[in-house]
Specification:
single chain; Beta-Lactamase; Helix Hairpins; Heat Shock Protein 90; 5-stranded antiparallel sheet; 5-stranded mixed sheet; 11 helices; 57% helix
Length: 483
């Protein structure tokens, strides 16, 4: 078991290393540096061999042409006599490690520094070109020699009377190439080591800003929300640090909101309990309490219990809204019928205060929604419009749609919302008028629940209000739900 765990950790370590940005930068920089160095050796050696052979060929050609010119000057009539040039031919052959052959007009070899083919005939493409007055230089890579064919011309008439064939081995050139290759290999090793060291250093420098991000995030994991991160090393790290700072700001705001929420929940739940305890203690401290007082105090306790129950139910609804989208039960729903049912349930509440509920359906709307959650959102908006309205007021709802969204508007002529409070009304437990909210049984969670439900549908909710003149909530929700 221990060995198995060890192998798993080793495997994960290898995978982590292979995914490392520093390793990839190291490999990229290393390859960019090493590949040209490797190609450099091939280029240098090929160039050296080519230039060395060309240089040798030119030197050999110059001396051979000079020898051929002097041979042509010694021609009597059209008879080629090279008896006076044999020693010079042998010296030239020895100097270049090669072989010189002279062919007359009948293609007969009249001189061979190797002494092998004298008296034989040589008919080749190069010799034929010579008798046409053309020089030729060929290179045989497999046998490692170069060959020159130079015409011998009579000095006066310029008639070709013979051909001088000169061949020279290139082994010395290849030996020089091998020696140069060894020296270049040593240089290559040094350059490759330097490139690898530079790649290692460069990769460390390039990923250094990301270590700062990691350290900052580890600070967050430890429960510490540090200062803003500033990384201006590169454009990418600057963008990353700006995104990090935005995320940190949201986290700080969320942390503050969470602490405030916990404090508000504690306060909201404690208040009814405190009231019930005071009422109960008052009854216990008195003797011979009249039944009427018992009934009055118990009724107050029941109201506090109902209030506590409502707060808990709203909190549970809010928790459900905060769950993952996978908890959403999406299905095609007739929005017109859904809102008509909502109004049917709320009409008795509105009737108690003589408030008129009116629905305007401009178009039939079928949309993909979670019926329960959308009902909760619309119900809260309509119920607030009724609760925070004046006696004998009105609440108008309208439904409309286009090719992409459906729209719900909830409008009332109630007490309105002050401008300073409008940006906070969707916060949990926020109340515009705390005393009035408590009188009508508000928990401060209704609009937070409505906003969460609308956002869960990828929708938008906005408020327009004027104090003393009424409030309008507009809701926009996509017809098709998308994950």
């Amino acid at each position: 078991m221990k060995n198995k765990l060890k192998s798993i950790f080793q495997y994960k370590g290898v995978v982590r290393l292979l995914k490392s940005l520093r390793l990839r930068i190291f490999l990229i920089v290393g390859l960019v540096g090493i590949i040209p160095i490797l190609l450099m050796k091939m280029s240098i050696l090929e160039k050296y061999e080519e230039q060395s052979i060309i240089q040798r060929g030119r030197m050999l050609q110059n001396q051979s042409e000079n020898l051929a010119d002097r041979m042509g000057s010694s021609v009597t009539g059209l008879n080629l006599d090279i008896s006076g040039f044999v020693t010079e031919m042998e010296q030239l052959a020895t100097l270049y490690g090669g072989r010189l052959v002279v062919v007359n007009r009948e293609f007969e070899i009249i001189e061979d520094t190797y002494g092998l083919d004298v008296g034989k005939y040589l008919v080749s493409e190069e010799v034929i070109k010579c008798f046409r007055g053309e020089d030729s230089l060929t290179r045989d890579s497999s046998n490692r020699f170069v060959e020159l064919a130079i015409p011998i011309e009579e000095a006066v008439t310029k008639e070709v009377v013979g051909a001088l064939i000169v061949s020279s081995e290139t082994a010395s050139v290849l030996e020089g190439k091998d020696e140069l290759g060894r020296q270049v290999s040593i240089l290559q090793i040094g350059l490759i080591v330097a490139v690898l060291v530079a790649a290692l250093y460069t990769s460390g420098i390039l990923v250094k800003p990301f270590k700062k991000v990691t350290e900052a995030m580890e600070g967050i994991n430890g429960g510490f929300l540090g200062d803003d991160l500033t990384l201006v090393d590169y454009t990418e790290t600057q963008v990353l640090s700006e995104a990090y700072n935005r995320m940190l700001g949201r986290m700080k705001a969320l942390d503050d909101s969470r602490q405030e929420f916990v404090s508000n929940v504690s306060h909201e739940l404690k208040t009814p309990i405190t009231s019930m305890k005071v009422l109960a203690d008052s009854l216990l401290m008195q003797e011979d309490v009249p039944p009427e007082l018992y009934k009055e105090f118990l009724q107050d306790i029941a109201e506090e219990i109902e209030r506590e129950n409502k707060i808990i139910n709203d909190l549970l609804s809010l928790v459900k809204m905060d769950r993952k989208a996978s908890d959403v039960n999406i299905q095609a729903t007739n929005i017109n019928e859904l809102i008509e049912l909502i109004l049917k349930r709320l009409r008795p509440i509105a009737a108690k205060r003589n408030i008129e509920l009116v629905l305007d359906s401009y178009k039939p709307v079928i949309a993909e929604v979670d019926e329960t959650k959308l009902t909760l959102a619309i119900s809260n908006l309509v119920e607030n419009a009724v609760k925070y309205n004046r006696e004998g007021g009105w609440v108008h709802l309208s439904i409309n749609t286009d090719h992409k969204y459906f729209y719900v508007k909830v409008e009332d002529n109630g007490i309105g919302i002050p401008q300073a409070d409008q940006e906070h009304i969707f916060e949990r437990f926020y109340r515009v008028d705390k005393s009035h909210s408590r009188e009508i049984g508000g928990t401060g969670l209704g609009l937070a629940i409505a906003r969460s439900a609308i956002m869960m549908h990828r929708g938008v909710i906005k408020v327009y209000s004027e104090e003393g003149a009424g409030t309008t909530f507009t809701v926009r929700v996509p017809l098709l739900y998308s994950e």
